[in-house]
Design brief:
By secondary structure, the chain is mostly helical. The chain is built from 18 helices and no strands. It has helices at 15-18, 25-57, 61-89, 91-110, 115-143, 148-178, 183-186, 188-202, 216-239, 244-266, 280-296, 299-309, 315-321, 323-343, 345-363, 372-400, 407-438, 442-471. Pfam families: MFS_1 (PF07690).
Length: 482
């Protein structure tokens, strides 16, 4: 695959930007990975703080879950729009816009006085993250030439994102215990402002596909459809699968998703060109990512609840307990490029998923008498290491077959698949866990419910493994194209 020219030499740059010297590769990497770290951190940083948020704002069980889902659903639903916007209007411009929106929303969430204000702020945060995240990957894929350099860049980006998700528990626990739950959001403000200033000063502009339009109706439809489906699944937790309060939003969500597909098939400038899915690399990698995300995303959520609600850990203790998990997922992401060169992308993705699934099966044996060494450490390391090994080859396969003009879109699509799978997976697994918890009493019921969530998650991950074996292209993603 022939790489795009460096950002600073693009013909679409403004005159002032063309006169600048291209920023060093390490600075581009630092800025975009900092942005990615923030948006992924906020997927998990609230998990440890959820009990304190509930107490502070009087949140219901449904409201508590929507603190997580409001962010994840809008993140997933608008990410395709963010990826296309980066291609059309400029990667730097969209990076700056998304980071600014994310930072302002973080301030609003940290100052919230009512549950609806916090949920609204998390929703806007998700939109900002959706605009920002695909721009980070696109800047990397268009700044580094195809081959080992790009693979290492993607691996670093993946490791930083994985690290953001992994250290969220530690960051959230530390801030909640020593300051307040509000600081899990307010901490984004000074960091976001610093990265924003660096991006404005040092990143240079590039774009592809001038003259195309944004498919805003498509973005609204896919977000509404995903939100309705997730809401319907959440309603089954309290009202059951046969209730109208669950079936109506589920049915409406599926109808809206179907309308979205019809609109995309007929639109002149679709948000998600369905023709992209004729590329085996795109369709198979995104399918695998949806299932992997559904299984792996909720790992931190249930572990945080288990160690606090069953084992009695304080927020800081809960965060500290996840440090080995954090190191494992970063390690897996960083060694993935070298293993890809030896094994190929497909075998590595499968091996990583198998490792993660074995950890989930082990974690599913948790009980009320669990200990850190016997119940948390071993399975957590396996789950995290496998997640790190899997993400890089899947992302590389997905982007390897795309045209340069569609890099932002495909980058947004693979992230959308991860987050969409995560949002729906969290809703389904939470409902399954809640049903088991309601059938019992006390900490034992909680442990049984959380364990069941991991057991079902391992089966979902098995489905992802089977899809990878059957459908992923048999090639090295860092050298292939088409």
């Amino acid at each position: 695959m022939v790489g795009m020219p460096p950002i600073a030499t693009s013909a679409t740059l403004p005159k002032t930007a063309r006169r600048r010297t291209a920023p060093p590769a390490w600075l581009v990497m630092l800025l975009v990975c900092s942005g990615q770290f923030l948006v992924i951190l906020d997927v998990s940083v609230v998990n440890v703080a959820l009990p304190a948020m509930r107490t502070g704002l009087g949140l219901s069980e449904l409201g508590l879950q929507w603190i997580v889902n409001a962010y994840v659903i809008t993140f997933a639903g608008f990410m395709l729009l963010g990826g296309r916007a980066a291609d059309l209007f400029g990667r730097k411009r969209i990076f700056v816009l998304g980071l600014a929106l994310f930072t302002v929303a973080s301030l609003g969430g940290g100052l919230a006085q009512e549950p609806w204000q916090l949920i609204a702020a998390r929703t806007v945060q998700g939109i900002g993250a959706a605009v920002l995240s695909p721009a980070t990957l696109t800047i990397l894929t268009t700044s580094f030439p195809a081959g080992p350099a790009r693979t290492r860049a993607i691996a670093t980006w993946t490791a930083v994102g994985a690290g953001g998700g992994a250290v969220g528990g530690l960051v959230g626990g530390t801030l909640t215990e020593f300051l307040s739950w509000r600081w899990v959001l307010l901490i984004n403000v000074p960091i976001g402002a610093l990265v924003l200033g660096g991006a404005v000063l040092w990143l240079t502009e590039s774009r592809q596909g001038a003259g195309r339009r944004l498919d805003v109706p498509g973005a609204l439809l896919v977000t509404a459809g995903l939100g309705l489906v997730a809401y319907g699944i959440v309603q089954t937790e309290t009202d059951g699968w046969g209730s109208l309060s669950a079936l109506l939003p589920l049915a409406a969500g599926l109808v809206v998703v179907a309308v979205f597909l019809v609109v995309e098939a007929r639109a002149k400038a679709p948000l998600m060109p369905l023709g992209l899915f004729r590329l085996r690399s795109v369709s198979s990698a995104n399918g695998a990512m949806v299932l992997s995300g559904a299984a792996m995303f909720s790992m931190w959520y249930f572990l945080s609840l288990y160690v606090q609600n069953v084992l009695g850990y304080r927020p800081l203790e809960a965060g500290l307990s996840f440090i080995p998990h954090s190191l494992s997922i970063v390690l897996g992401s960083k060694i993935a490029p070298r293993l890809m060169n030896r094994l190929g992308a497909k075998p590595l993705a499968i091996a990583g998923a198998v490792i993660s699934a074995s950890g989930m099966v082990w974690q599913g044996t948790m009980d009320v008498d669990g200990s850190y060494l016997g119940t948390i450490l071993g399975p957590g390391i396996l789950m995290a290491l496998g997640a790190g090994l899997t993400a890089t080859p899947i992302a590389s396969i997905a982007t390897s077959g795309a045209d340069p003009a569609d890099q932002g879109l495909v980058s947004g699509l693979i992230n959308t698949s991860r987050q969409m799978g995560g949002a729906l997976g969290l809703s389904v697994l939470s409902t399954i866990a809640a049903a088991r918890i309601e059938a019992g009493h006390g900490p034992k019921a909680l442990a049984d419910g959380y364990g069941l969530a991991f057991q079902v998650g391992s089966m979902v991950l098995l489905g992802s493994i089977l899809l990878m074996v059957v459908a992923l292209p048999q090639r090295r993603a860092d050298t292939a194209h088409g």
